[in-house]
Design goal:
157 residues, globular, 6 strands, two-stranded antiparallel ribbon
Length: 157
């Protein structure tokens, strides 16, 4: 099986992703902010054109782990003190720029996204890069880590 999370940044074509999505029943989760919904921490709309193109012929469910975990929009930016895996294990935290620990909200949101994926039998998630919830690089976010732990492929945009 090809690991989609390793190929997303390599410039593969839409046909590559379409082929891979065919094997995943053409259904996926997608970070709401990638669609242009105002769910980003700053409340801005910044749709990702590459992601929107890929989604044209797919069935998808928009998710925002941070909102599902109870955080408001807009919200104070937050950063990981370790990896998403470490946050899930209780060995690291998610701290806002004001110093508030929002780890429990991030974990709750990740669990809600996982529950949606499992209920809908979804095996692929298109998530926002550089997010403490959804990113893969430079650190794996909390939601991305939980999905990967449960065998759900993650592509970041």
């Amino acid at each position: 099986m090809i690991k989609l999370d390793e190929t997303a940044q390599e410039g593969y074509s839409s046909s590559f992703f379409s082929t891979m999505l065919t094997h995943n029943s053409q259904r996926c989760l997608v970070s709401s902010c990638l669609l242009g919904l105002c769910t980003r921490y700053d409340g801005q709309s910044k749709p990702d054109s590459r992601c929107l193109t890929l989604l044209q012929n797919l069935h998808y469910i928009p998710v925002c782990p941070e909102q599902l975990g109870g955080l408001a929009t807009p919200r104070v930016p937050a950063n990981l003190t370790g990896s998403g895996e470490q946050v899930l294990a209780g060995c690291a935290t998610v701290i806002t720029q004001e110093g508030t620990d929002v780890s429990q909200q991030f974990i709750a949101g990740a669990k809600a996204v996982l529950q949606i994926a499992q209920m809908q039998k979804i095996q692929l998630a298109l998530l926002k890069a550089k997010s403490p919830s959804c990113g893969l690089k430079p650190q794996v976010g909390v939601t991305a880590a939980l999905l990967l732990q449960h065998g759900i492929q993650v592509i970041e945009f």
